[in-house]
Amino acid sequence: MEVNKITSNKVNTRYLTVKKESTTAVSSANIDRSDALMKELNIMANRNNISFKGSFELNLSTDELEKRTNKDYLITKKMLKADAPEYLNLEEGDKEALKHLVKAAYILEDINMKIDNPHNIPFREYLKSEVAKGNKNAELTKILFDAQKGINAIDNMSNKINLAKGYTEHPGKGVYPEDLSKEEFHQILIKMLNEGKDDEVKKILTQRSVVERNGDELVGIDYVDKFKEEFSHMADELDAAAETSTDRNFTKYLILQAQALRMANPMLDAYADKQWATLQDTPLEFTITRENYEDEMTGTIVENKELSKMLEERGISPIPKDFLGARVGIVNKDGTEALMAIKKYLPTLAKNMPYADEYEQNISTEGDTKQTMVDVDLVAVAGDVGAYRGGITLAENLPNDDKLSLQIGGGRRNVYHRQIRFISDMAKLQERLDAILDKEQHQYYLDEADHWFTIGHENAHSLGPKKACETLGKYRNIVEENKADMGSLAFVDLLTELGMYTPEQRKQIIVTTMTDNFLKSKPTLSQAHRVRTVMQNKYFADRGGYEITPEGKIHVNIDKVVPIAKEMLSEIIRIQLDGDFEKAEKYVNDNFVWTDNMELIAQKLQKVNKALNGRTESELAEKLLSE
């Protein structure tokens, strides 16, 4: 969740570094598994007359490419296979629908590549042409490009990865002009506001526009208008899926979503989102994810007092731009049933949130919680939700607070990704525990407890102030993700008392969560999901939530963790309520401290786990695309 990638609610999601390594090798047969996925997209490229003028130069050396594509450094998460029983057991109408949903997802991936970086698609075509010539480095670079879904990314050691020389990442990604500086951006907006062009500025600052230069001004173009032909093609696929879908409610959602892709009307998206959030007992899963973690330009506005005041006087909220992803899957009934166990407790949790009498929150303390949740076997994750950039999304709580559907009475929906959370190597997990966790607490580490914690995290996104906190600027997502983590931990004791967890499960959640919070390296401030874990480690260490033994292992002081989490949660909610940028900045800076103990554990983790990044392998999706 925006405030969802384990990472988004990129704000409803807990954007975790995937810590288990795959035993799957990157073989020559896997070098270009995306050809089938690109078949549909090439049709689009030809139709749009994409020009590939100019040239690219590969940035990584042969040695670096060979290392980063080695199975020890590039982990693989496998989506459903072509003969998966989950697929074979579907009704024929849903099998046909699934084919169209996969095609729609990869059309959206192409769109997101454009808004991520305008050079992504030309570079991809360059790589394909070089691969055809037998360029080995291009083959290896394409593996990484397909994994991170773009030229630029960051690995799980917080190193920036640029696959093409000279094509660095910009704060505005592909949604703002590449040559637009923060200072010029602010001055242009001030000038336009002084000239009474409020409506034009609103279009620039909406979450659903691409911003371009228009003389000495800027203009915001709605995504649907900017990529009209692609979205229309995608809508056709959704309509085709709706024709054979066997579930009436899911079919209604597909029809509404197709309409929203054909016309630049936010209310149409709101109607589709509202219907999507009600889906509970459907055989198929299809989601368009819209999260705004990647936009580092819009959030700078709050740092300019003059501009912020002008916008506030005009009632204009600068909302970071959405980046787009698509999830296609098959709902797992057993997993979903287990998820639903927490739903009856959500009103009680809402009542127990800090300062609950000062704000309205999404979860009602009485009656309908407007929260659905499903566990999904994944067929494909495309675009933003599928980009493996140091980590990949484990679950999402959507829509985010800035979305119109919540204002018209819609609810939220949590979707959990089964294939992402599966362990691929239990021996490697044990090696990790032997390296960093006090031996006497191994009995309390349970990987499934990480899933329980994530459930709490995603539901906590729906708790707290019902506002998007845009005034917190670049700290907004850090604070929100921190809130979701602490909301999950803070209620562990209450949920144990209510019977949701056993005393043993309580210990497992606490020890597993605290252990998993340690990272392999210090993150950058732009990595909201990782920054908040450093903040928590510092906060808990200062208050005795854990200690490092003389042997250099983590020992969790189990009974201290929940009270500390409650304390931090209260401080976070206060910051969100106050909406003060300076207070948020001070809070983050005071707690975002990489300590000697964190570095000690990081060094141990690096020895155990060499992985730098990962990728997804989508056998069933490839089969469906080729049909």
Q: What is the C-alpha radius of gyration, as a whole number of Å?
A: 23 Å
Task: Give a short account of the largest sheet.
Answer: 5 strands, mixed
Kindly report how far apart the N and C termini lie: 34 Å
Count of strand segments:
13
Trace the largest sheet across and list its strands: 6-7-8-10-9
Net shape: globular
Helices, by number, come to 27
Question: Which structural class do you get from the secondary structure elements?
Answer: alpha+beta
Would you identify the regions where 5 or more consecutive residues have pLDDT less than 50?
A: 1-53
Percent range of helical residues: 40-55%
Proportion of residues in extended strands: 5-15%
Average pLDDT, to the nearest integer? 91
Give structural notes:
With 627 residues, this protein is of the alpha+beta class. It has a domain at 28-80 and 106-170. The protein contains 27 helices and 13 strands. The chain has helices at residues 35-47, 62-68, 85-88, 92-116, 120-132, 136-148, 182-194, 198-205, 223-226, 228-244, 248-262, 266-276, 305-313, 333-339, 346-351, 404-407, 418-421, 426-436, 447-460, 476-490, 492-498, 503-516, 528-542, 558-578, 581-591, 596-608, 619-626; strands spanning 74-78, 152-154, 160-162, 209-214, 217-222, 284-291, 323-331, 371-383, 395-398, 412-417, 546-548, 554-556, 613-617. The strands form 5 sheets. It has a 5-stranded mixed beta sheet with strand order 6-7-8-10-9. Strands 1-13 form a two-stranded parallel sheet. A two-stranded antiparallel ribbon has the order 2-3. The protein starts with 34 loop residues before the first helix and ends with a helix. Mean pLDDT is 91; it is low at 1-53.
